[in-house]
Design brief:
Its main location: cytoplasm. Residues 72-141, 383-402 are annotated as: Disordered. By secondary structure, the chain is mainly alpha-helical. The chain contains 15 helices and four strands. The strands form two sheets. Strands 1-2 form a two-stranded antiparallel sheet. It has a two-stranded antiparallel ribbon with strand order 3-4.
Length: 402
């Protein structure tokens, strides 16, 4: 045993005498043996406790998730019967793909969100605030549990537990958002509110963020108030800028950034609109490079080419004064892009076919213009832009009939 003997001076030499007696040494050894056994048992108990806490953390995450989903189901069951009885569009943030009729008499709140007409303004606002509060608390609870459980579950188990539940919930949310985006104005409002109320949980997901930006673009188109249009476009542009900082290789992020820049520039000076035109073209080109089979990007590029080919004298002079190389594009460039849209997705939009007719008319090919006017007439009016194209179609017909 170390340090149990000490030197004792005896004449000119040194002898060693024990510091502890034999019995004391035996007692020390027994105590050390007892400590070692207790440490081993404690280590075993800690390992068992760790395993138990891992399972407990997984159960807590699952229970919180189930509670959130059940709360949403209860809210839907509570609100849908009333909305069907009142024959109005659903204002629930949990609007599903199989429910909700088009609302032809919508009221709009100060924030630009359409509400149902069944109750008083106070009741509607209180109900929305209550639901939003419940969602935010529930989402924050899930996040808290996730943070607290990270130290208890190893990295692989954390991904299995959290990623699977996140992906499942996100997948359902995105599918619902896409359905609402393709619906009427009331459904677009529902989609916008749905995404806003889930931003806390999914703000770090690429596919969520560009859809949130898209929903801002939808709201910009729907509202008639100029200030609200600017606000929606500006807020959406900020959302997609955040996404582009992390996901520069996302075609959708570049596409919707270009769209929102264009919407925002509609409320700005000629100088700003021309400057935005360069940005728009840059991001649409990038979107096509990343996803060359997306007809929407070619449609947007076709519109840009057509607008540039029809720039007025003042706009051309302004562009020449501001930039060394003003934007250039021809009607033929626009036509090729619109025809590419039809090649990728025949009947992509009524507006696209009307643009093809306009391009042929500008190029002097009247027979082709008439053909595409007739083809455009076969398609339904699905968007506000389609409605504007329908009016252009009628004007073109009336001019030729004269």
């Amino acid at each position: 045993v170390p340090r149990l003997l000490a030197p004792v001076e005896v004449g000119d030499g040194a002898a060693y005498a024990p510091l502890l007696t034999h019995n004391e040494q035996v007692d020390v050894l027994e105590r050390l043996d007892f400590v070692v056994r207790n440490i081993a048992e404690l280590r075993k108990e800690v390992e068992e406790l760790r395993n138990s806490l891992q399972h407990l953390a997984a159960e807590i995450v699952g229970e919180v998730r189930s509670h959130l989903e059940e709360t949403q189901k209860v809210t839907r069951r509570r609100r849908f019967p009333r909305e069907r009885r009142d024959s109005t569009g659903s204002s629930s943030i949990y609007f599903t793909a199989s429910s909700g009729a088009a609302n032809t008499d919508d009221g709009e709140s100060e924030g630009g969100y359409t509400t149902a007409n069944a109750e008083s303004d106070y009741d509607r606002e209180s109900e929305r605030e209550s639901e939003e509060g419940e969602d935010e608390v529930s989402c924050e609870t899930v996040r808290t549990v996730r943070r607290d459980s990270l130290d208890l579950v190893n990295e692989d188990e954390t991904h299995l537990i959290l990623d699977s539940s996140l992906e499942e919930g996100l997948g359902q949310l995105l599918q619902q958002a896409d359905h609402l985006h393709n619906g009427d104005e009331q459904e677009k409002r529902e989609g916008f509110q749905l995404l806003l109320n889930n931003k806390l949980a999914y703000a770090d997901q690429k596919d969520f963020l560009w859809r949130l930006a898209r929903a801002h673009s939808d709201m910009c188109e729907i509202t008639e108030d100029a200030d609200e249009k600017r606000s929606y476009a500006s807020d959406g542009k900020e959302e997609i800028e955040i996404a582009l900082q992390k996901w520069d290789q996302s075609a959708e992020c570049h596409q919707w950034y270009a769209i929102l820049c264009g919407q925002l520039s509609e409320h700005e000076s000629i100088q700003k609109r021309i400057q935005t035109g360069y940005v728009f073209k840059e991001h649409i080109d990038k979107a096509i490079e990343l996803k060359p089979e997306d007809p929407k990007s070619y449609y947007l590029l076709g519109r840009w080419c057509y607008q540039v080919s029809h720039l007025g004298w003042l706009e051309k002079k302004t562009a020449s004064a501001l930039f060394e190389a003003p934007p250039t594009a021809t009607v033929q460039d626009a036509l090729q892009n619109f025809l590419r849209v039809e090649e990728l997705s025949p009947g992509f939009s009524k507006a696209g076919r009307v643009y093809i007719a306009k391009c042929y008319k500008d190029l002097g090919n009247n027979s082709a213009a008439v053909l595409w006017m007739n083809l455009a007439s076969e398609l339904p009016v699905n968007t506000k832009e389609d409605a504007e194209s329908e009016r252009e179609l009628e004007e073109m017909r009336s001019v030729w009939e004269e």
